[in-house]
Amino acid sequence: MFQKILIANRGEIALRVLRAAKELGIPTVVVHSTADADAMHVRLADESVCIGPPPSRDSYLNIHQIVAACEITGADAVHPGYGFLSENAKFADILAAHNITFIGPTGDHIRVMGDKIEAKRTAKRLGIPVVPGSDGAVSDEIEAKRIAAEIGYPVIIKASAGGGGRGMKVARNEADLQMALATARSEAGAAFGDDAVYIEKYLEKPRHIEIQVMGDGHGQGIHLGERDCSLQRRHQKVWEEALSPALNAEERKRIGDVCANAVAELGYSGAGTIEFLYEDGGFYFIEMNTRLQVEHPVTEAITGIDLVHEQIRVASGAGLSVTQDEVRFDGHAIECRINAEDPRTFAPSPGTISHFHTPGGLGIRVDSGVYSGYRIPPYYDSLIGKLIVHGRNRVECMMRLRRALDEFVVDGIQTTLPLFRDLVGNADIANGNYDIHWLEKYLAKEQ
């Protein structure tokens, strides 16, 4: 096992990793910007190192400073959390060159799955079902029209290096295609420094289903079921649940086994998530995230398996603690992402939290790094906490969630708590009757 783990992140995920390391008896080091000097993970870590001013590029994205912090403190492993450098292949390579273990996959696997075109090619090779579309980047409008005609409209143009909804445009007919192609390329170039785009069939009412996988890096892989992340706003997940109300046990096993076999054949190491669009019984590969996900707690709730413990075990060479036959699914879990945002306009709401009270009781978990008196800095993501609720079934989970949301108090700033209180009482949500477009349509009607 490791001598000391440096946590290269902030907020609730830094605190989550810190807790896992402490449970395993491993000393921790956290890095922080000057804006996060009073953060909870800084207060609780064994050691802390300030690595720069508030802007992420000068602190949490500063690879040189993080490596220097490892050398100063003697940390022999780095957990990147999610976001920031968690899917940065160069960072993983540099750590390896300094004999520091990156708690995650290899730089090569990050590179393959970070390129959407290469990821799709790899998925097809591994037997993962993919959305019909171009085999690679589209070179010009003529080629785009030919491919679109072959697979049928509507189609979606996506940035090869994209994510978060940037560089994505829908064309419903040939007349739309030229503008969609030009706009997607422009957005992709501005956001990612790479204007390569590809075309896929656009599914009208799909759900977003993702499969949690773990690999030991030596040919063993398992899946831990699916999460339904269909409730989204601008391609950003808002509400996640496991297991999906849309799948049955046969579908779950079928797609889960495909994914587990794929990561085994790939020789993948650590946690990953293979994401799909799901419509009319069909699964269509979107991408693979080569890191821990924000919504990982719902999987932990229904399996009883600590994913961060597993990440650390695998990275240290100890292997997976469970086999596929030992994975069991118990009940239902839902996660609500609580953001410091206006619940209607979603404008950021930084400021000082005057009062912070979290719900409790059986089946309730809150992952958050904030506290009463904490000042939310304006420089980072607006996520301030995650409410995770577990019940014996979805009905009990929803009832428990309603009660937990009523108990949750955050004063001094605006949050998205009112949105979730509305959603938990909605008939479509109660019946599990929603797709990836449902939330935006609901919000548009509420304006």
Integer count of domains: 3
Gross morphology is globular
Strand order of the largest sheet: 13-12-9-10-11-14-19-17
The CATH topology of the largest domain is given as D-amino Acid Aminotransferase, Chain A, domain 1
Superfamily (CATH H level) name of the largest domain: ATP-grasp fold, B domain
CATH class of the largest domain: Alpha Beta
| Percent of residues in helices | 25-40%
Strands, count: 20
Strand content: 25-35%
What structural class do helix, strand and pairing data support? alpha+beta
Number of helices: 15
Notable characteristics:
single chain; alpha+beta; Rossmann fold; eight-stranded antiparallel sheet; five-stranded parallel sheet
Structure overview:
The structure is a single chain. With 447 residues, the protein is of the alpha+beta class. It has helices at residues 11-23, 40-44, 63-73, 89-97, 107-114, 116-125, 141-151, 174-192, 249-266, 296-303, 307-316, 394-407, 417-423, 427-430, 438-446, and strands at residues 5-7, 28-33, 47-52, 77-79, 101-102, 155-163, 166-171, 197-201, 207-216, 221-233, 236-242, 269-279, 282-289, 332-339, 351-352, 355-357, 364-367, 375-376, 383-391, 409-411. Helix 1 links the parallel strand 1 (5-7) and strand 2. Helix 4 (89-97) packs antiparallel against helix 5. It starts with a strand and ends with a helix.
